[in-house]
Amino acid sequence: MKSEGELAKTWKSRAETEIWQRRKKSGSSWQTPPVTSPLSLMSSKGKEPARTPIAPLPNPATGSANPAASLSSLWAYITPALNHIVKSSTNNTTKAPAIEVDFYAGVHSACYNYITSQTETYNASSRHDVPMSGTDLYDQLDKYFADASRELLLGAPQEDSDLIHYIIPCFNRYSLGAQSANRLLNYVNRHYVKRAVDEDKGWLTVSDVLEHVAKTAKATDTREQLGKKLREKRTDELRKWGDIDAGPEALVEAEGCAEAASPVDRIVHISALAHRRFRVEFIEPLLAVPKLKKGTKVKKKIPKSNGAGPSPAPKGRLARAVKNLLESSEIEVEEQAKLASELAKMLRKIGVRPDHPLRKKLAKTSAPY
To answer: Predicted confidence band at 63 (pLDDT cuts at 50, 70, 90)?
Structure first.
């Protein structure tokens, strides 16, 4: 099994290769060669990357041990599957690496048995401080995706001009793994997440819509009418994330974006959990505006606007990278629009809100999505 350091390196191979090819085309220097893997090497014809298929990960031998006996044993059992699905190097942009059917079934059964045993304890207890069954596994998954996102951020290039070319392929690979993990751990969604949402712990809670209901409610409103107002508020929130009238798939996609946009203490589906962590641990640090330390003297003051618009202000790394992309004379207009569109889709999927300045800026350049 690969170490964490080796796994982190494979994540960067495709992104760094893309940056290297772009610099080679423009004549820019490259100080160190990109980290590559056999999967990113060119085929014998030299026309496209060789797509060597990755063999499905086999079911590890557990002997007589019961993977559902404890959280530590369950996590030791499913971690290789998550690492293979989320972190294995691949050039396949449509599908994450697979695991064998018996391993897939084993993970499902282990999660089922573990959560079921916790459920019996939870239901038998009269104490209110006993955590809901599946809470510890869900928290462990949250930590896993947080660590994975931070690993990706640590591998980001220092040059702002290379940042977007690194982010897009990294996120696409990460998102494929997140969606595959969501299917693998579907029982966690069906049991733990659904139950948490029923207990008002989901991405949209009653407290979030009380103000809306209080403004529109009347003293004569029935329970059914109040329930309708709550559903209307939920629909209004979902419309911010997509055209939910386009069909069931569009509705599911919009709700996934809304879940990813929620605070980290809200319980959401596994795929949205992964996307939310990518936003919090990877993108938000790049969006953060640098702050000057107290007592630091500014050598060059920001010039006044003289009524010609807002004064220029410090920008985060990602905002600077977008500015460089849109103003670059070395990148063709079509390529600029394509990259802007892909970045806009990513920001939407991870829950960056529509009124964010960067999303507004990208919306003017990118194609509709």
So the answer is: low
